[in-house]
Each structure stands twice: as C-alpha cells, then as structure tokens.
Amino acid sequence: MSTKKELKLLTELLNLEGVNVYSHRQYEGIGIILQIEAIDRESICGRCGLKSNKIHQNRRHIIKDLSWGEKAVFLEINRKQFKCEKCQKPFSEEMGFVKERRTYPKRLANDREKNQAGKNSKRKA
Ligand SMILES: [Zn+2]
What we know:
- By secondary structure, this protein is α+β, with helices and mostly antiparallel strands.
- It has one domain (4-96).
- It has helices at residues 4-14, 106-124; strands spanning 19-27, 31-38, 43-44, 51-52, 55-64, 73-83, 90-92.
- The strands form two sheets. Strands 1, 2, 5, 6 and 7 form a five-stranded mixed beta sheet that branches. Strands 3-4 form a two-stranded antiparallel sheet.
- Strand 3 and strand 4 (51-52) form a beta hairpin.
- The protein starts with a helix and ends with a helix.
- It binds zinc ion.
- The site of zinc ion (ZN) has 7 residues, from loops.
C-alpha cells in the first residue's frame, strides 16, 4: 500500500504536467512501476471539439520512463476513453507526454537524441 504522502512525493518526482501517480509497485529484478493517470476528468473530442466527461472505458498500457539510478522505471498509464455525446463515438484523452503509439515518453526520446548528439560531437572532435 502506498500512503498519500508517498504518492504526492512520487507525483512531484515524476514531474509530468497534469499527471497524478495513484499507485506504485516494485518488482525485484524488474524495477518500479508507477501507475499514473491524467488529473483532468474531462477531455475534448477531436472530431467536434466538444468537452466530454462521460467515461467510455479505461485502457491501460505500460511504457518505459527514464531510470531512477539503477532502477528501471515503468509508467502504467490509465488512459481514459470518453464518449462524445454529439458524435456518439469514443475517443482517447490526449496525454501530451506520450506520443501516440510510442513505447516511451517524449522526454526519454529527447534524452536519447541528446545522448546521440553528444556521441556524434565527440566523434567529430
Ligand atoms: Zn464529438
């Protein structure tokens, strides 16, 4: 069980805008899994622009985040699907830090690019 204090701290450490850590687990030999969800309880339909807070279903997926020291960190995202009352169609909420169909967050991609750039410049010098 995670205490409220721990979760607040983890949310602060994770430092992803609009994201709340609601649970965490640690697996020996694997790493830490943070269960996260967007704080927003509503989202905007990409088809018509109408706001919806009617949850259609939740979809979970796991992505790898930056490691904390020697521990691998995974984010288990609880991504809400809303149903637009106008279009009568479900849509997934936008989570800015995860690009659609990517297995890692943007900031990890940026980190990789930076590392790559560093290596390249060293090679040139
Ligand atoms: Zn709509």
